[in-house]
Amino acid sequence: MSKIVYLNDVQKDPNTVLTVGTFDGVHAGHKVLINTVLQKAEKRGARSVIVTFDPHPRDIINPGSAGIKLLSTLKERSELLSDLGVDEMVVIPFDRDFSLLTSEEFVRDIIWEKIGVSEFVIGYDHQFGRNREGTIETVRRLGKELGFNAHVVSRQEVGDKTVSSSAIRKAIQEEGNMRLAASFLERNYILNGRVVHGDKRGKEIGFPTANILPEHPRKIIPRKGVYAVWVRVGGIHYGGMMNIGVRPTFDGEKETLEVHIFDFDREMYGMEVQIQFVDRVRDERSFDGVEELIGQLERDQNRIRNLLNKQRPDIAKQRN
C-alpha cells in the first residue's frame, strides 16, 4: 500500500516528483497526472508523491453547505494509489488556517521547504491557494526561482465528455449511470461497508439479503434502484443484486442498501464487504403484493446473472 504520511511526519527529500490535488475517485484524468509523476520519478530515481487533503477542501471553504459526497475515502485513495505504484501519499490536514495560505506560501513553505520537489506535475486547469489564485503560471514562475521543473498535463476526455470528479458524482448520485461512471473511473465504483441486522423480509420471500452500512457516512450512494453488483466477501467475489431505496411494497420509509448474493448461504452479520456497482437495471417501484414482487425479483436475478457473466469483477491487489 502507498505509505500514508501526514504533513508533520513527512521526510523532506529534494529528489521528489509530485502532484497535488484532492484526487477524489482517482479517475482517468487523475491517472494521467499520476502516471506522469511515476514516469518522471523512475527516470530520475526519485520518490513519487501524491499530495492530497483531508477533509475535502470544500467542506472547510463552504462550511454552511451539507458537505461534499465522496467517491473515495482516504483509505480507498491510498489503496488505489498503491495499485498504481505511488511511493507516498502525503496528507495535509485541511483547516481554516491552511485555507488562508496564498499559492506562493503553499509552494514555498509546504512543497519546497517541507516535502521537497525536483519536478512538479500539474493539471491544465488546477487552481490552488487562498481564493484559488494560484495557477500553472504560479508553479512555473516559482519553479524557475527555486529550481524545480513544472510539467502541465492537458484535459482528459472519454468520448466527448471531460473527465471530472463532479461529472462522476452526477452520474452516480443523480442518474445511477454506473457504466458512465466506470468509464470515467476506469473501474467499477466501489462501496465498502459492514453487514448489519435488517428485518429479514428478503429471507421470508426466498431472497435473503444483507443490509449494508457504508464504512464512511459521506460516501456517495447511487440513485435509488436495483443494481447488478459484485460483492467481495473474505477475498472472494460473488455476483448479486442490490436494492437501494425504501422498499415501497412493504411501506418502508427509511432508505436502505440491501444485497442478495447469488449462490451464497452463510451468516454475514458484522462482516466487512465491498460492493462493486456494474449497472442499474431498473427503478425501485411498488408492487401489488408479494407474489408480483417475487416474480419481478426472479426476472431481475436472471437478467443480472446474464449481465455479470459478461463482465467479471475488478480484481485489485489483495490487502492484508
Automatic annotation (TrEMBL):
Q: In which pathway does it act?
A: Cofactor biosynthesis; FAD biosynthesis; FAD from FMN: step 1/1; Cofactor biosynthesis; FMN biosynthesis; FMN from riboflavin (ATP route): step 1/1
Q: Name one GO biological process term.
A: FMN biosynthetic process
Gene3D superfamilies with a match to the protein in the record: HUPs (3.40.50.620), Riboflavin kinase-like (2.40.30.30)
Q: Does the keyword Transcription regulation apply?
A: no
- CDD domains of this UniProt entry? FAD_synthetase_N
**Alphabetically ordered keywords of this record:** ATP-binding, FAD, Flavoprotein, FMN, Kinase, Multifunctional enzyme, Nucleotide-binding, Nucleotidyltransferase, Transferase
Q: Does the keyword Nucleotidyltransferase apply?
A: yes
TM stretches of this protein = none
Residues covered by the Riboflavin kinase domain:
184-309
* MF (Gene Ontology): ATP binding; FMN adenylyltransferase activity; riboflavin kinase activity
What does the record give as the function of this protein? Catalyzes the phosphorylation of riboflavin to FMN followed by the adenylation of FMN to FAD.
Protein name, UniProt field: Riboflavin biosynthesis protein
* Protein source organism: Rhodohalobacter mucosus
